[in-house]
Design a protein that fits this description.
Length: 653
């Protein structure tokens, strides 16, 4: 049998576990298993040893002040994030090293060195200053994947402004809500970008959002070029990037920020309709982004070409496209568009073209690659790859072995990294030169991190077993809070198990002591690696004039991991129809963004509720997944479910 024609079943048999080769181990940044015990014995000292590798304007007085649930790290220290990412590499003589190879979807390409990035960042920073933006001001970014997005981010950090990136797939309403919540002074946007051969008009979205945002004084517009033009007529608020930035001097002194000053706000879905503004700090966040990049991705700045496919609009793009890799001074690849444009082998073509050595992507993408067919990666020489990563959702063992075999040539270690927007950096992960990995398991807490499993009562589950995952020790990149909502911070993360950080994931520990993160235990679903709140989609549905009531659940989906399904009760006088289902789906896209569109809409005259009126989503999930119905003893009217099952099944074919 030819190597590449092995079935997934055969691969699963062959790769029950994977041990890094001696060759990999010898060159790895971490190869001594003792690293775990050493970090545990003095975890504050361990983190301080990483912080010491950054460039500080003033050293800290104390490593940690911990008044649960509030932590301050590197207290009294002062530093600037852009200096870690740029100045220190240029000062060390590495200014000519490529920071980003960038490729646009139509094939236009640019290469920017660390010196060129520093030059650009200084100009943007000076431009921002000339607009009156200063320390503590909020700047919202709505931009495509381009080096200018990185420049805008680092320019904000250089002058101490708090930046907040909104994923350019979010709707005008979502963008507006975020701008209003943070009372931003300025929006920086791209005019348009390319996605799967289609033009995405970003400026039109920004115009609509900003019309309802009195705090916004100006909108700075970067022109994408390459035929990507916005249909926006322009407004008096608009300012051209080239007009503002190009004439600026290329020197801008960085502001020394307090280690605990907020670095950015990034919104993520919670269990209510309102997204949470996660706040991260300068010192602690950078320390963990830097350390984890170096050990988990084994980065070698002199030789690696690292590619993380995440959009900067998500935390993975913040920590592992910008701050972690740049603080390490490594060369990266950044790509604007879709993996299947013009053909399903675009990623493999890019890996070969740029000689990518370390590749980090999401299970949802890997499952799509599997579906598109083994022949696409097989067309390309991927032998430059030496390490693979996965993030965003549990990776199923089938996708894991496919990734190892068809992308990693059977030889590249895979790091399955568990973490969250709130944790700032990777928390549970293999170390590629040490860990024997098992397909589907994120294995062990990163050195210095302590993770436990707790049962319903909060009692620790020791040895093999399942439970609620908690992080039981503070860590430098923990969120510092929710933007202007201190109560929700305590309530969401620290009240379920007092003194412990509760990420709302369930997990199990196997016989070997490896951790398997199983997924969310709250009303948050994970669609293609993106967090979505059931409540947020429900409010978007109810926002439509035809809808009286809605319940949304995440159901298992072959490619996306999970997909939203909406159960909808219509207002009197409205009739269910396919056209209305389509309209509701589109409406959710308009309110939140395309990523939140329900996979299916099921019209129903009633929803299963408890006697106190709570919707029993668990039962809806059973219906949607065709499972035997679970415990129904608290259900007010059992007839409702039979009707729903019939309705669901009749629509399935
Ligand atoms: C899930 C993304 C299993 C988890 C970095 C978490 C994972 C949520 C993994 C955070 C993984 C992320 N294995 N589940 N390797 N990585 N998750 O904030 O449910 O967008 O709580 O951060 O994704 O999503 P977020």
């Amino acid at each position: 049998m030819k190597e590449t024609s092995k079935t997934i079943e055969v691969l699963l048999q062959e790769h029950r576990s994977f041990t890094p080769s001696d060759e990999f181990r010898r060159q790895a940044n971490a190869s001594d298993p003792e690293i775990y015990a050493r970090a545990d014995a003095d975890w504050q000292g361990w983190w301080a040893s990483w912080a010491e590798q950054l460039t500080w304007e003033r050293k800290w007085d104390r490593v940690l002040d911990w008044k649960p649930p509030h932590a301050q790290w590197f207290v009294g220290g002062k530093l600037n994030a852009s200096v870690q990412c740029l100045d220190r590499h240029v000062a060390a003589g590495n200014g000519a090293r490529v920071a980003y190879h960038w490729e646009g979807e139509p094939g236009d390409a640019r290469t920017l060195t660390y010196a060129q990035m520093l030059d650009g960042v200084a100009r943007v920073a000076n431009g921002l200053k000339s607009l009156g933006i200063g320390q503590g001001d909020r700047v919202t970014l709505y931009m495509p994947m381009a080096p200018e997005l990185v420049m805008a981010v680092l320019a904000c950090t250089r002058i101490g402004a708090i930046f907040s990136v909104v994923f350019a797939g979010f709707s005008a309403t979502s963008l507006r809500d975020r701008i209003q919540d943070q009372e931003a002074k300025l929006v920086i946007c791209g005019d348009a970008c390319w996605r799967r051969g289609k033009l995405l008009d970003l400026k039109i979205v920004v115009d609509e959002a900003v019309a309802a945002c009195p705090s916004i004084e100006q909108v700075l517009v970067w022109r994408r070029g390459a035929g990507a033009e916005s249909a926006s007529a322009g407004t008096p608020r608009d300012l051209e990037w080239s007009a503002l930035v190009d004439p600026q001097p290329a020197l801008c002194a960085p502001v020394a920020m307090d280690a605990e000053d907020p670095l950015f706000i990034l919104y993520t879905s919670g269990t209510t309709g309102k997204p949470k503004g996660i706040v991260h700090s300068h010192g602690g966040y950078l320390t963990v982004a830097y350390a984890t990049s170096q050990l988990v991705f084994d980065l070698k700045p002199e030789s690696d070409v690292y590619w993380c496919t995440a959009d900067v609009g998500w935390i993975t793009g913040h920590s592992y496209v910008i701050f972690g890799p740049m603080a390490n001074g490594v060369t990266q690849l950044m790509y604007e568009g879709a993996p299947n444009h013009p053909q399903p082998d675009r990623f493999w073509e890019l890996i070969h073209k740029y000689g990518v050595t370390v590749f980090y992507t999401a299970p949802t993408a890997i499952r799509a690659f599997m579906k598109w067919g083994d022949e696409w990666p097989a067309k390309h020489d991927l032998s430059s790859l030496r390490l693979l990563g996965s993030v965003g959702e549990p990776i199923n063992p089938e996708a894991w072995v496919w990734y190892l075999h068809h992308i990693g040539g059977g030889k590249c270690p895979i790091v399955d990294t568990w973490w969250q927007t709130e944790t700032g950096g990777i928390m549970i992960t293999p170390l590629p030169g040490i860990t024997t990995t098992v397909p589907g398991s994120a294995t062990q807490p990163f050195p210095g991190i302590e993770a436990k499993l707790l049962d319903e009562q909060g009692k620790e589950v020791v040895g093999p077993g399942g439970g609620y995952l908690v992080l039981s020790r503070p860590w430098p990149s923990m969120l510092r809070g929710l933007w202007r909502d201190p109560e929700r911070y305590v309530q969401t993360y620290w009240s379920r198990f007092p003194g412990m950080y509760f990420p709302a994931d369930g997990a199990k520990r196997d016989q070997l002591g490896n951790l398997w993160v199983l997924g969310r235990v709250d009303d948050v679903m994970n669609v293609s690696g993106h967090r979505l709140s059931t409540m947020e989609i429900e409010s978007a549905l109810v926002d439509h004039h035809a809808v009286a009531e809605a319940a949304v659940i995440g159901v298992a989906h072959e490619l996306k991991g999970q997909a939203p399904v909406g159960f909808v009760i219509l207002r009197a006088g409205r009739e269910p129809s396919d056209a209305l289902a389509k309209e509701l789906t589109r409406h959710v896209g308009e309110v939140i963004g395309a990523l939140a569109r329900p996979e299916r809409i099921i019209f129903t005259p009633e929803l299963p509720k408890t006697r106190s009126g709570k919707i029993m989503r668990r039962l809806l999930r059973d219906v949607a997944e065709g499972k035997a119905l679970g415990d129904q003893t608290t259900l007010a009217d059992s007839g409702v479910l039979d009707g729903l099952k019939k309705e669901y099944e009749s629509r399935e074919g």
